[in-house]
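Database export, one record per block. Field names are fixed; values are copied verbatim from the stored entry.
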Amino acid sequence: MAIVYTKSELLDKVNEWLSPEKVSLLYAQDFVNYSGLTSDTKEKYTEVIAEHLLNNLSVLDGIEQITRKSSYKTSGHEWKPIDPTSTRKEEQIARSMMGHTYPYIGKIIDYQIPLKNSQNDTAGKIDLLSWNEKKKQAYVIEFKVPKADNKARQETLLRCILEIETYSRILNFKKLLDDFKLPEDTKLRKAVLVYQNSDSHKQIYDTKIKELMSALRVDMFLMNENSYLLI
């Protein structure tokens, strides 16, 4: 049976990770992925957390940038078709998007962009990087594929939002532009890419989640069941 929390119990868990020393790992905490309702107020866990963050957005300023000495551009990253036998579905699809141009986000120029400078750094990888030459915009994109096991916990849109927001702050954008030889006046954009009609997609209609996306200027793009990007 899933653990049930009151609203105050949930917010106590969130507050433990809002200090400058911990906030960069907020997105990775289990409670960000909780589904269900608080036992007392009957509010969605994700809506409670999103509202709390909307009232405390300044805490995200505690996320420190990591300047990576090595290039953000990884040698050997190139287009390859999807290997249906691979269990790393997100990476397979992301790699198959390399070199393709999509409306609005532009051309996918890399995937799995590393953020760490050393093994001791607590940072993951940006799933996709795109470049829109016409608009001079570079998108950093968090890509989520629904888990094949319907009983497995699916990642919430809240987690996707917080993950790409965190990574965009950890990223040294000027160095990224230099490494990929993009114009220095390029604008940074953030987005999540999720599957149409997935749990993450449906959560865009939750009031506080939608407000949080707007406040953090995180866009959403959709992929259909055939792994074709929709705009």
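Remark 1: DSSP finds seven helices and seven strands in the chain.
Remark 2: Residues 147 and 153 are 8 Å apart (CA to CA).
End of record.
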